[in-house]
Amino acid sequence: MPMGERVAVLGAGGFIGNRVVEVLHLAGSDVVPIVRRWSGVALPGRFALDVRVADALDRRQVRAALDGCGSAVVAIAGDARTIVESIEPVYRAADDAGVRRIVFLSTASVHGQSPLAGTDEASELSDRQPIEYNNAKVRAERQLLACRGRGITEVVLLRPGIVHGPRSQWISGFADDLLSGRALLVEGGHGACNSIYVDNLVHAVRCALTADDADGQAFLVGDDEEVTWRDLYTPICSALGMDLDDLPQPGRDAVETVGEWTRRLRELSAVRRFLPGPVRAGLRAAVDAHRGHGVHESAGPTVTQELALLHTCAYHLPSTRARSVLGYRPIVPFNEASVRSVEWLRFAGYPVVAPRSS
Amino acid sequence: MNEPLRVAIVGCGAVAHVYYAPALAALEHDGTATVVAAFDPDTGTASAFCSRLDRARAVSSLDAVIAAHPDVVVIASSPRYHAEQTVAAVSGGCDVFCEKPLAIDRAQGENMVAAAATAGRRVFVGLVRRQFPATRAIHRLVRSGALGDIRSVECFEGGPFAWPVRSTEYFRPVAGNGGVLQDIGTHCLDLLVWWLGAPTSLSYADDAMGGVEANCSIDLAFGSAQVKVRLSRDWARPNRYVLRGDRGWIAWNLENVDRLELGFDDEIVGDLTLEPALLPDAAPARGPVGPRIPFGFEGAFAAQLRALASGRTEVLVDAVEALPVLDVIDRCTAERSTMPMPWMVPDGAV
Fold this sequence. Notes:
The structure holds two protein chains of two kinds.
Chain A: E1 6-10, H1 15-26, E2 30-35, E3 52-53, H2 59-65, E4 71-74, H3 80-85, H4 87-97, E5 101-105, H5 132-150, E6 154-160, E7 162-164, H6 169-180, E8 192-193, E9 195-197, H7 198-210, E10 217-221, E11 227-228, H8 229-239, H9 257-271, H10 277-292, H11 305-311, H12 320-326, H13 334-348
Parallel strand pairs in A: 1-2, 1-4, 2-3, 4-5, 5-6, 6-10, 7-9
Antiparallel strand pairs in A: 8-11
Helix pairs in contact in A: 1-7, 2-4, 4-5, 6-8, 8-13, 9-10
Chain B: E1 5-10, H1 14-29, E2 33-39, H2 43-50, E3 58-59, H3 62-67, E4 72-75, H4 79-91, E5 95-99, H5 106-119, E6 123-126, H6 133-144, E7 150-158, H7 184-196, E8 201-206, E9 215-222, E10 225-232, E11 240-245, E12 248-253, E13 259-264, E14 268-273, H8 297-310, E15 317-318, H9 323-335, E16 337-338
C-alpha cells in the first residue's frame, strides 16, 4: 500500500484476519483491526491498536469503522448468509469512506474441493455445488464485482486453497482428530493439497494492496511447492508422537452423513459453557442421545464429503496469474511452514513431544 | 421471618446481566433479598438490569447507591474501580460483596481490608469456584493428605473469548494487566493457593505486545509440587486440572462443577458425582437416595448471595482470604517475560 496508508482489516478476530493484523503491524504498517463484536478484541488487543467494532451487515457501522482508512482487507468469516449478505454493505461503506482498494479473501473452493485438471481463474464458476460454502463464495465474488461496476473503490479477489499455519483448522483440527482417534486419510492422503502457508497468503494480500492492473481480477494463490495431504499431516503426526501410517485410510466411497452430524454436535459442545443452563442441558441430552445410537464422538473417524474430495484431489491449482500480475512469490518454504505450525501447536497447549526447533 | 436483605449493585455489565440478575431475581422471588438500587455509568445498562428485578431503581452515582441504605453492595464494575467503590461503600455503612478480582494489586486489596475493619463492615469476594462441589472436594482431599504429598498439577483453562462484553474497557491495560491473567487467572490461581498454600517460586510469560495478553503460561512450585498453568482467551484445549500425589491422583474438568475423577495407586479409579444438599446434614442415606440435585455454575452465584442473605458468611470468601492470589498475580506481573512465539515475527520485518 502507499506509504503511510492506513489499512483496515475486517474479520480481524478470525484466523486469517488476525494474521494479517499481526504481520502488517509488526512490519510497521498502520493497521486498524475491525471485529464483529467486543469480545473479538481479545486477539488484536494484544497490540496497542485502534480496534474498532462493526457488524459487516450494517453499512453505517462499517462506514464509521473505516474512517480514515485508505485500503481494506476483507477477511470476514461466517455462515453462507453472512458471506453473501455482507458484500454489499461492506463495499458501499468502503466506497462512502473513500477507500482506494479492497482486497477480498475468497477461496479456491469456488472451483470445488477437487478441481478438474486445467482449472484456473478463467474457468467458469458454479453456485450449484454440493458444498454450500463454495456456493456462498461464488455468489459473494459475483456480488463484489457487480458492486465494483457501480462504485469507485477497486477490488482484488484472492483465492487461497488450504491455508495452513498457526490457528489453521487444517493444523489444529487434524491435531484434535489425532488426539481423539478421529483422524483419517482418505485413500492414503496421496491427493494434491493446494496449500498456502498463512504468511504466504498475507504476503499475497500485501502484493494485492499495491499491484497495478489488478483491479477487478481474481487470483489463485498457493505455496511454492506442490504437496500432498500426507506432506501436510506428517509433521503434525510426528510432533504428537504418532505415525501417519497407523491412521485409517478409507476409500472415497466411505462418506457418511453421520460424520457431519457428529461435527456439528462437537462444535456446539465447544461453546456450551457459555450457554444458559437449560440450553446446555438440552445440548448435553442431545449429545447423550446421539451417543446412545452408538456413534460416540471418539468412537472413530468418519469421512465427510468435503474430506473425501480434498484428499483425492488430483490437480494442483496454479498461481501463475498472481505471479505475473501481483508479483507474488511465496516467502515461506513449505518445510519451514510445517516447523512453525508445530511450534504453534506447542504454544497452544497441544502435547507436542518433538524437540523444540532451534 | 427476617426482613429481606437490602442489596444494591454497582456495575451492570456482562457479569451482572449473565449471573447476578437471575440470582438476585430468584432471591427476590423467595423473599430473601430485595434489590434497592443499581448504578452504572451507562444509564441504559443500569435500567436494563433493573427491568429484570421487581423493585430495583437505577441511580446516577455511588453516593445515591449508599443513600438507598442497602445492607450489602455488590461491586460488579471494572476491577480498577473495585478499591475506590468498596472503600466508599464500607465507609457508608454497607457490607460489600465484590466481584473478582478483589483489586488490581495487593496494596489496593489491603487498603480495602483496612477500610472495612475501620468501618466495622465486612467485604467478601466472588471467588465463585470455591463454591463448586468439585473444588471443595479437591480441597478436602489435598489438605487431608489422602493423595499423599502433591507432586504435580497441570491445568489448561480458556478458549476463544466469548464473554458478552460491551466495550473495550475489558481489554484496557490496568496497572500492567487486564488480560487473561487477571481474568480467569484469578480463579485458577486462587484455587491453587487455596488447595496448596502460597507458591514458593514462580515464573510467568504471556503474549502481550503492547496491549493485554490473550495467552499466558505460569510455572509455579508449591514446595515439592511442580505446577504448570496455561490460560488462554485464544485457543481451546480441554479445560482440565490434573493433580498427582504420592498415593493417588485427581482429574477435574472445569465444566463439571460437581464431578471428579479419582484414582489411588492406579488400583481404584472412579468417576465421582458429588451431590451437595442431598441430605440436610450431609450424612449418608440409609436407603436409596432420591433424585440428584444438579449444581450448576449459575447455582454457585445464587449460593453465594443466599449465604450472604442468610448470614451463613462462613461459606463465603472474606477479602482477607483473597489477598494471597493478588500477591501471586503481582509476582506474575513483576516476573513477566514474553512467551516463545517463533512463528510470530513476519519474514522481512525487523
